[in-house]
Amino acid sequence: MTKTIDSFETYYKFQKTSEKAPIIFIHGIGLTHGIWDRQIEFFKKYNTIVYDLIGHGKTPIKKRQISMKDFTKQLLSLVNYLKIDKFHLVGFSIGSLVARDFASLHSNRLRSLTIFGTVYKRSEDEKRQILNRYEMMKLKKDITKKRAVYRWFNEEFISKNELIYKKIYKMLENTKHETWLKIYKLFVHHEDNDMKIKQITANSLILTGENDIGSKPEMSKNISKLIHGSELKIIKKGKHLCNIECSEDFNSTIKKFIDKNDKA
Protein backbone atom coordinates (compact mmCIF):
# COMPACT_ATOMS: atom_id res chain seq x y z
CA MET A 1 0.00 0.00 0.00
CA THR A 2 1.15 3.54 -0.67
CA LYS A 3 -0.08 7.05 -1.35
CA THR A 4 0.49 9.34 -4.28
CA ILE A 5 2.17 12.62 -3.49
CA ASP A 6 -0.25 14.60 -5.66
CA SER A 7 -3.08 16.84 -4.43
CA PHE A 8 -5.45 13.90 -3.94
CA GLU A 9 -3.09 11.74 -1.82
CA THR A 10 -4.75 8.67 -3.34
CA TYR A 11 -4.20 5.44 -1.43
CA TYR A 12 -3.49 2.63 -3.86
CA LYS A 13 -2.03 -0.84 -4.28
CA PHE A 14 -0.08 -1.75 -7.42
CA GLN A 15 0.58 -5.43 -8.05
CA LYS A 16 3.16 -5.43 -10.84
CA THR A 17 4.35 -8.57 -12.59
CA SER A 18 5.36 -7.31 -16.05
CA GLU A 19 5.47 -4.27 -18.31
CA LYS A 20 2.00 -4.94 -19.75
CA ALA A 21 -0.94 -2.58 -19.38
CA PRO A 22 -2.40 -2.91 -15.87
CA ILE A 23 -6.04 -3.48 -14.91
CA ILE A 24 -7.37 -0.66 -12.72
CA PHE A 25 -10.45 -1.31 -10.58
CA ILE A 26 -12.71 1.42 -9.16
CA HIS A 27 -15.00 0.61 -6.21
CA GLY A 28 -18.45 1.99 -5.26
CA ILE A 29 -19.86 4.41 -2.67
CA GLY A 30 -19.10 3.72 0.98
CA LEU A 31 -16.69 0.92 0.06
CA THR A 32 -12.94 0.61 -0.46
CA HIS A 33 -10.45 -1.09 -2.76
CA GLY A 34 -11.03 -4.21 -0.62
CA ILE A 35 -14.10 -5.23 -2.63
CA TRP A 36 -11.72 -6.39 -5.36
CA ASP A 37 -9.79 -8.97 -3.30
CA ARG A 38 -11.17 -11.90 -5.31
CA GLN A 39 -10.17 -10.19 -8.54
CA ILE A 40 -6.66 -9.37 -7.32
CA GLU A 41 -6.14 -12.99 -6.32
CA PHE A 42 -7.54 -14.28 -9.63
CA PHE A 43 -5.40 -11.84 -11.67
CA LYS A 44 -2.24 -12.42 -9.63
CA LYS A 45 -0.19 -12.96 -12.80
CA TYR A 46 -1.43 -9.64 -14.23
CA ASN A 47 -0.57 -6.07 -13.35
CA THR A 48 -3.42 -4.74 -11.19
CA ILE A 49 -4.15 -1.50 -9.42
CA VAL A 50 -6.83 -0.87 -6.81
CA TYR A 51 -7.30 2.44 -5.02
CA ASP A 52 -9.58 4.27 -2.62
CA LEU A 53 -11.80 6.97 -4.06
CA ILE A 54 -11.71 10.44 -2.53
CA GLY A 55 -13.20 10.30 0.97
CA HIS A 56 -13.08 6.51 1.16
CA GLY A 57 -10.71 4.14 2.94
CA LYS A 58 -7.37 5.91 3.37
CA THR A 59 -7.80 8.59 0.70
CA PRO A 60 -8.73 11.91 2.33
CA ILE A 61 -11.34 14.39 1.16
CA LYS A 62 -10.02 17.94 1.13
CA LYS A 63 -12.88 19.89 -0.47
CA ARG A 64 -16.12 21.07 1.11
CA GLN A 65 -17.93 20.39 -2.14
CA ILE A 66 -17.13 17.52 -4.48
CA SER A 67 -18.22 16.69 -8.03
CA MET A 68 -18.00 13.69 -10.33
CA LYS A 69 -15.24 15.54 -12.18
CA ASP A 70 -13.08 15.35 -9.05
CA PHE A 71 -13.15 11.55 -9.25
CA THR A 72 -12.24 11.61 -12.93
CA LYS A 73 -9.36 13.98 -12.18
CA GLN A 74 -8.26 11.69 -9.35
CA LEU A 75 -7.96 8.73 -11.72
CA LEU A 76 -6.12 10.79 -14.33
CA SER A 77 -3.76 12.08 -11.65
CA LEU A 78 -3.08 8.54 -10.40
CA VAL A 79 -2.20 7.07 -13.80
CA ASN A 80 -0.06 10.08 -14.67
CA TYR A 81 1.73 9.84 -11.32
CA LEU A 82 2.45 6.15 -11.98
CA LYS A 83 3.50 6.99 -15.57
CA ILE A 84 0.93 4.59 -17.02
CA ASP A 85 0.02 5.35 -20.61
CA LYS A 86 -2.44 2.54 -21.46
CA PHE A 87 -4.56 0.46 -19.11
CA HIS A 88 -7.71 -1.64 -18.73
CA LEU A 89 -10.38 0.06 -16.61
CA VAL A 90 -13.08 -1.67 -14.56
CA GLY A 91 -15.56 0.62 -12.77
CA PHE A 92 -18.31 -0.49 -10.39
CA SER A 93 -21.49 1.43 -9.39
CA ILE A 94 -20.44 5.07 -8.90
CA GLY A 95 -17.04 3.85 -10.07
CA SER A 96 -18.73 2.92 -13.36
CA LEU A 97 -19.85 6.54 -13.71
CA VAL A 98 -16.27 7.67 -13.10
CA ALA A 99 -15.06 5.14 -15.68
CA ARG A 100 -17.68 6.33 -18.18
CA ASP A 101 -16.70 9.97 -17.72
CA PHE A 102 -12.99 9.16 -17.98
CA ALA A 103 -13.55 7.10 -21.13
CA SER A 104 -15.60 9.86 -22.76
CA LEU A 105 -12.57 12.15 -22.37
CA HIS A 106 -9.62 9.76 -22.57
CA SER A 107 -10.59 6.66 -24.55
CA ASN A 108 -7.14 6.82 -26.13
CA ARG A 109 -5.66 5.82 -22.75
CA LEU A 110 -7.75 2.65 -22.49
CA ARG A 111 -7.00 -0.82 -23.81
CA SER A 112 -10.45 -1.80 -22.60
CA LEU A 113 -13.33 -0.50 -20.50
CA THR A 114 -15.61 -2.59 -18.28
CA ILE A 115 -18.69 -0.77 -17.02
CA PHE A 116 -20.00 -2.87 -14.12
CA GLY A 117 -23.21 -2.36 -12.13
CA THR A 118 -24.00 0.98 -13.74
CA VAL A 119 -27.19 3.03 -13.83
CA TYR A 120 -28.85 4.57 -16.84
CA LYS A 121 -32.05 6.60 -17.32
CA ARG A 122 -33.75 5.78 -14.02
CA SER A 123 -37.55 5.73 -14.15
CA GLU A 124 -39.52 8.13 -11.95
CA ASP A 125 -40.20 5.28 -9.54
CA GLU A 126 -36.50 4.34 -9.43
CA LYS A 127 -35.58 7.99 -8.80
CA ARG A 128 -38.08 8.11 -5.95
CA GLN A 129 -36.69 4.93 -4.40
CA ILE A 130 -33.09 6.08 -4.39
CA LEU A 131 -34.10 9.53 -3.10
CA ASN A 132 -35.96 7.80 -0.24
CA ARG A 133 -32.79 5.85 0.58
CA TYR A 134 -30.82 9.09 0.63
CA GLU A 135 -33.33 10.66 3.04
CA MET A 136 -33.08 7.57 5.28
CA MET A 137 -29.29 7.82 5.24
CA LYS A 138 -29.53 11.36 6.58
CA LEU A 139 -31.05 9.92 9.76
CA LYS A 140 -27.80 8.02 10.36
CA LYS A 141 -29.49 4.71 11.18
CA ASP A 142 -27.60 1.43 11.02
CA ILE A 143 -30.56 -0.15 9.21
CA THR A 144 -29.58 1.74 6.04
CA LYS A 145 -26.20 -0.02 5.98
CA LYS A 146 -27.76 -3.42 6.65
CA ARG A 147 -30.33 -2.89 3.92
CA ALA A 148 -27.56 -1.87 1.52
CA VAL A 149 -25.68 -5.13 2.06
CA TYR A 150 -28.87 -7.13 1.54
CA ARG A 151 -29.54 -5.23 -1.69
CA TRP A 152 -26.06 -6.06 -2.91
CA PHE A 153 -26.04 -9.81 -2.16
CA ASN A 154 -28.57 -12.64 -2.29
CA GLU A 155 -29.76 -13.62 1.19
CA GLU A 156 -28.61 -17.20 0.77
CA PHE A 157 -25.07 -16.01 0.02
CA ILE A 158 -25.04 -13.76 3.11
CA SER A 159 -26.26 -16.60 5.33
CA LYS A 160 -23.32 -18.76 4.20
CA ASN A 161 -20.67 -16.01 4.14
CA GLU A 162 -20.80 -14.15 7.42
CA LEU A 163 -17.22 -12.92 7.12
CA ILE A 164 -17.95 -11.23 3.79
CA TYR A 165 -21.06 -9.61 5.28
CA LYS A 166 -18.97 -8.26 8.17
CA LYS A 167 -16.23 -7.07 5.83
CA ILE A 168 -18.60 -5.07 3.61
CA TYR A 169 -20.58 -3.74 6.57
CA LYS A 170 -17.35 -2.59 8.23
CA MET A 171 -16.39 -0.64 5.10
CA LEU A 172 -19.73 1.18 5.25
CA GLU A 173 -19.35 1.73 9.00
CA ASN A 174 -15.86 3.22 8.57
CA THR A 175 -16.89 5.70 5.87
CA LYS A 176 -17.53 9.10 7.45
CA HIS A 177 -21.25 9.78 7.40
CA GLU A 178 -20.88 13.36 6.14
CA THR A 179 -18.64 12.20 3.28
CA TRP A 180 -20.96 9.34 2.36
CA LEU A 181 -23.92 11.73 2.14
CA LYS A 182 -22.00 14.17 -0.09
CA ILE A 183 -21.02 11.46 -2.54
CA TYR A 184 -24.31 9.56 -2.42
CA LYS A 185 -26.06 12.82 -3.30
CA LEU A 186 -24.04 12.92 -6.54
CA PHE A 187 -25.17 9.38 -7.32
CA VAL A 188 -28.82 10.15 -6.48
CA HIS A 189 -28.96 13.19 -8.75
CA HIS A 190 -26.83 11.79 -11.57
CA GLU A 191 -28.22 12.58 -15.02
CA ASP A 192 -27.09 10.58 -18.03
CA ASN A 193 -25.68 12.40 -21.04
CA ASP A 194 -26.13 10.30 -24.18
CA MET A 195 -23.79 12.46 -26.22
CA LYS A 196 -20.96 11.92 -23.73
CA ILE A 197 -21.60 8.18 -23.65
CA LYS A 198 -21.45 8.05 -27.44
CA GLN A 199 -18.01 9.69 -27.28
CA ILE A 200 -16.62 6.51 -25.69
CA THR A 201 -14.55 4.74 -28.33
CA ALA A 202 -12.70 2.28 -26.08
CA ASN A 203 -13.41 -1.43 -26.48
CA SER A 204 -16.21 -1.78 -23.93
CA LEU A 205 -17.92 -4.47 -21.90
CA ILE A 206 -21.17 -3.67 -20.09
CA LEU A 207 -21.80 -6.03 -17.22
CA THR A 208 -24.34 -6.39 -14.39
CA GLY A 209 -26.06 -8.98 -12.23
CA GLU A 210 -29.27 -10.62 -13.36
CA ASN A 211 -30.97 -9.78 -10.03
CA ASP A 212 -29.46 -6.33 -9.45
CA ILE A 213 -32.39 -4.13 -8.40
CA GLY A 214 -30.52 -0.82 -8.67
CA SER A 215 -28.38 -1.39 -11.75
CA LYS A 216 -30.89 -3.39 -13.72
CA PRO A 217 -30.00 -5.50 -16.77
CA GLU A 218 -32.27 -3.30 -18.89
CA MET A 219 -30.12 -0.28 -18.02
CA SER A 220 -26.99 -2.11 -19.18
CA LYS A 221 -28.71 -3.24 -22.37
CA ASN A 222 -29.73 0.32 -23.19
CA ILE A 223 -26.35 1.89 -22.47
CA SER A 224 -24.67 -0.83 -24.52
CA LYS A 225 -26.64 0.33 -27.54
CA LEU A 226 -24.99 3.77 -27.26
CA ILE A 227 -21.39 2.55 -27.17
CA HIS A 228 -20.38 1.38 -30.61
CA GLY A 229 -19.23 -2.23 -30.72
CA SER A 230 -19.68 -2.80 -26.99
CA GLU A 231 -20.33 -6.25 -25.53
CA LEU A 232 -23.01 -7.07 -22.97
CA LYS A 233 -22.90 -9.69 -20.22
CA ILE A 234 -25.53 -10.41 -17.58
CA ILE A 235 -24.22 -12.50 -14.67
CA LYS A 236 -26.81 -15.18 -13.85
CA LYS A 237 -28.25 -15.01 -10.32
CA GLY A 238 -25.94 -12.11 -9.49
CA LYS A 239 -26.91 -8.99 -7.57
CA HIS A 240 -24.98 -5.72 -7.23
CA LEU A 241 -21.70 -7.12 -5.85
CA CYS A 242 -21.66 -10.13 -8.14
CA ASN A 243 -17.88 -9.69 -8.53
CA ILE A 244 -17.78 -11.26 -5.04
CA GLU A 245 -20.87 -13.47 -4.99
CA CYS A 246 -20.42 -14.81 -8.54
CA SER A 247 -16.68 -14.25 -8.73
CA GLU A 248 -15.90 -17.25 -10.95
CA ASP A 249 -18.31 -16.13 -13.67
CA PHE A 250 -17.34 -12.48 -13.24
CA ASN A 251 -13.59 -13.13 -13.35
CA SER A 252 -13.69 -15.47 -16.34
CA THR A 253 -15.84 -12.95 -18.23
CA ILE A 254 -13.56 -9.97 -17.74
CA LYS A 255 -10.42 -12.07 -18.23
CA LYS A 256 -11.63 -13.19 -21.65
CA PHE A 257 -12.47 -9.59 -22.57
CA ILE A 258 -9.22 -8.13 -21.26
CA ASP A 259 -7.05 -10.81 -22.87
CA LYS A 260 -8.72 -10.14 -26.20
CA ASN A 261 -7.89 -6.45 -25.93
CA ASP A 262 -4.45 -6.74 -24.37
CA LYS A 263 -2.21 -5.96 -27.30
CA ALA A 264 1.49 -6.01 -26.51
Characterize the structure shown:
- The chain is of the alpha/beta class.
- The protein has one domain: Alpha/Beta hydrolase fold, catalytic domain (Rossmann fold, 3-Layer(aba) Sandwich).
- 47% of the residues lie in helices and 15% in strands.
- It has helices at 37-42, 68-81, 94-106, 124-138, 142-152, 155-160, 162-174, 177-188, 194-198, 217-226, 242-245, 247-260, and strands spanning 2-3, 11-15, 23-26, 48-51, 87-92, 110-116, 204-209, 231-235.
- An eight-stranded mixed β-sheet has the order 1-2-4-3-5-6-7-8, sandwiched between helices.
- Strand 7, helix 10 (217-226) and strand 8 form a beta-alpha-beta unit.
- The longest helix has 15 residues, at 124-138.
- The two termini are 27 Å apart.
- The model has no long low-confidence stretch (mean pLDDT 94).
Brief synopsis:
The protein has twelve helices and eight strands.
Secondary structure blueprint with pairings:
Layout: E1 2-3, E2 11-15, E3 23-26, H1 37-42, E4 48-51, H2 68-81, E5 87-92, H3 94-106, E6 110-116, H4 124-138, H5 142-152, H6 155-160, H7 162-174, H8 177-188, H9 194-198, E7 204-209, H10 217-226, E8 231-235, H11 242-245, H12 247-260
Parallel strand pairs: 3-4, 3-5, 5-6, 6-7, 7-8
Antiparallel strand pairs: 1-2, 2-4
Helix pairs in contact: 2-3, 4-8
